[in-house]
Design a protein that fits this description.
This protein has 688 residues and is α/β, with parallel strands linked by helices. It is built from 21 helices and 22 strands. Helix 13 packs parallel to helix 15 and helix 15 runs parallel beside helix 16.
């Protein structure tokens, strides 16, 4: 019986508890209601003029009575009480008249700022001066001067309160709604116009995903002060401590003058914070258009250890406007961006050539929509077939030809040297012959830094293609130029998308070698170099000076930090060893090309040795070997043609002396009888 009583009591308590829980407001309901109320208040129309003027009249009457009461400390003489009835209509009429003249009866409560506050103060001062002069006609003896001053301050304060209190309330309600909706607690780095605009846009938008905590800046004199109502919490060097103290999850980098090196320092400082970073897009042309919605994730392009190279857009426009251009490999990263830039600069006709019909179709439709004034033509063709290319040249008669089509995957080409030769070497020859046959004025061949002292089949074939283009160009009416640059950040097959995928999966991030370095450039720089150097007639081999190379492991660490993770704690970095054909360090110039000339804007022209006299005969032999699929003989022929070609040899992952502690790399040597360690496949190769 006791057990039954206890059970019944327990059921009753559970029922009462459930009813009590049901009576409590649910958090998600509170958040939604708060957001809805804030959004509704911000979008509601302004009150009509009659309402605002009525409130101003009531504030004027109240201000005069309070001023008289304060002047006489609550003991107002009877004559002054009687005189109020005479002067009050004059004061109200004067106040409303000047308010109408100043335009403060038409008010945008949500967007009111300092200029509007000055208009309110000006209307109040003008009304007081006019009332002082008119009052002497109504009351010859006038009022005590202190009443005029008190009434001015009280009435102006009331007018300001009526107009600015809704904005303050909306701001508080918006912050409350964002906080309850789980918005990311945010610090803005910077104290300039961009930082202020971001803060204003964030505060005005109740649906913003960020809840502003405050600012940090480089100026110590601003610490403790307020920018747009939010406090400057400290200096940039205090950012890690401030992130921990205020539980910040997002950092907005709003200083446009900040160097890439300083951004890397900020990332390194916050390595343990697990905060995400956002940045103002570099392409933003007008700071007045800035809003929180325009912010982007910090990208590797923002961390390049050099200043970005900006090319003269007007010069590019003069070089290509009104001309007919043909681009091979138009479906790839470089080819598609090249087509976009050509269309933006007003080519008359653009012929896009590629074997990948899907990418070609999608890119062509997008380009036709963006540039309706350009005649965009799509052609599916293989550069290894000479006849179709000749027919394309005869049909369109292009004036400028850009050859971007190539096999670029280094490890895959190690297994298929015959295919690399047919596409990269003889495909280039076919394009050059087509340029000659159709009377093209300029041909630009896109090469790679892997062509310098190559260790891969891809690099060797690109080097041989450079020689072929320069050799044909010496006896051709077509101006032929090879443009050589490093790895393009974010291109198809690049290491950056792979690292991002691995980080999204929770790791590990795979790097081939702790000391592996690469030269990097942005896709905008790559295309600008192709257009300016290739079409400018500076020489037959142009190179962009790209500063110091970047260690791949540092790039991986930066991407992990930008994702709000801690390297080697949240996400491991695993070393897998160099893959077939890969080099530890890339070069931009060979020993024979050390003599260069800087022609302009960090563009160099290399003095390269002439191709061998029997190049044509050796190419015939190489074509035969490639078409018969004799891969070993193809490699031997490439070594004869490219004496600096050193085929791949297996390289172990040796730890660097100056690098931080990392997970131990696998050793190529193992005790007898021990099972081999399977290396995790990685993609450290960053392709053009």
């Amino acid at each position: 019986a006791l057990m039954e009583d206890d059970s019944s009591t327990l059921q009753t308590m559970n029922l009462l508890g459930a009813r009590a829980d049901a009576a409590q407001p649910r958090p998600w309901l509170i958040r939604r209601c708060s957001c809805a109320v804030a959004a509704t208040l911000q979008r509601c129309p302004a009150p009509p003029t009659a309402v605002i003027l009525t409130l101003d009249a009531m504030a004027t009457v109240l201000a005069l009575h309070v001023a008289v009461w304060l002047r006489f400390e609550g003991l107002v003489p009877t004559p002054y009480l009687e005189s109020l009835e005479l002067v009050l209509p004059v004061l109200v009429a004067t106040r409303l008249g000047f308010n109408l003249a100043a335009g403060i009866h038409r008010w945008t409560f949500r967007l009111a700022g300092l200029p509007d506050a000055l208009r309110v103060a000006g209307a109040g001062l003008a009304g007081t001066l006019a009332f002082t002069m008119l009052c002497t006609h109504v009351l010859p003896e006038g009022l005590p001067r202190s009443i005029y001053a008190l009434e001015f301050f009280l009435a102006t304060a009331a007018f300001g309160f009526l107009r600015f209190s809704p904005r303050v309330g909306l701001r508080w309600l918006g912050r409350r709604a964002r906080s309850m909706a789980g918005a990311a607690r945010t610090i803005i780095v910077g104290s300039g116009d961009a930082a202020e605009l971001l803060a204003r846009d964030l505060e005005r938008n109740p649906d913003s995903p960020y809840a502003l905590v405050g600012f940090v800046c480089e100026d110590a004199s601003l610490v403790g002060r307020r920018l747009d109502g939010s406090r400057v919490l400290g200096l940039v060097r205090d950012l890690p401590e401030l992130i921990r103290r205020y539980c910040v999850s997002t950092v907005l980098l709003a200083d446009q003058g900040q160097s890439a090196g300083r951004r890397r320092q900020i990332l390194d400082m916050c390595a343990e914070s697990r905060a995400r970073f956002k940045i103002i897009p570099a392409a933003l042309d007008r700071i007045e258009r800035l809003s929180v919605a325009m912010l982007e994730d910090v990208s590797p392009e923002d961390l390049l250890p050099r200043d970005s190279v900006a090319f003269d857009e007007e010069e590019i426009h003069r070089l290509v406007c009104g001309r007919v251009a043909l681009v091979t490999g138009a479906g790839g990263s470089i080819g598609s961006e090249l087509c976009r830039r050509l269309a933006c600069h007003g080519v008359r006709q653009l012929v896009m050539v590629d074997m990948n019909e899907n990418e070609l179709y999608v890119g062509g439709r997008l380009l036709a929509a963006q540039s309706p004034g350009v005649d965009v033509r799509l052609e599916v063709a293989d550069v290894r077939e000479a006849e179709p290319l000749l027919r394309l040249g005869a049909r369109y008669r292009p004036q400028d030809i850009f050859h971007a089509a190539a096999h670029k995957h280094v490890p895959l080409m190690e297994e298929a040297p015959d295919e690399a030769v047919k596409n990269n070497v003889f495909g280039t020859i076919n394009v050059a012959r087509m340029a000659e046959a159709c009377g093209a004025e300029r041909l630009v061949f896109i090469s790679t830094d892997k062509a310098v002292n190559p260790t891969s089949v891809m690099g060797a074939t690109k080097r041989l293609a450079e020689m072929v283009v320069r050799d044909i160009g010496r006896s051709s009416a077509t101006q032929m130029t090879a443009v050589r640059f490093g790895n393009v950040l974010g291109s198809a097959g690049s290491v950056v998308p792979l690292f991002k995928q691995q980080i999204a999966r929770g790791g590990p991030v795979t790097v081939t070698h702790p000391d592996c370095t690469r030269y990097f450039m942005t896709i905008s720089e790559a295309v600008g170099l192709v257009l300016v150097a290739g079409l400018g007639g500076y020489g037959d081999l142009c190179i962009l000076e790209m500063g110091e190379p970047i260690r791949i492991v540092e790039l991986a660490r930066s991407l992990i930090l930008m994702a709000g993770r801690v390297p080697d704690e949240d996400i491991r970095i695993v070393y897998t060893g160099l893959r077939p054909g890969e080099k530890l360090h890339e070069e931009l110039l060979s020993e024979q090309e050390e003599e260069t000339q800087v022609v302009r804007n960090r563009i160099q022209v290399a003095c390269s040795p002439a191709p061998p006299a029997d190049l044509a005969d050796r190419l015939v032999e190489l074509r035969t070997l490639a078409e018969e699929g004799r891969r070993d003989e193809v490699l031997k022929a490439l070594r004869v043609l490219i004496p600096t070609f050193e085929p791949y040899r297996a390289t172990s992952v040796a730890p660097a002396m100056d690098r931080p502690e990392q997970p131990a790399p696998p050793s190529p040597e193992r005790p007898e009888g021990e099972e081999p360690v399977e290396l995790v496949p990685a993609l450290c190769e960053v392709r053009v």
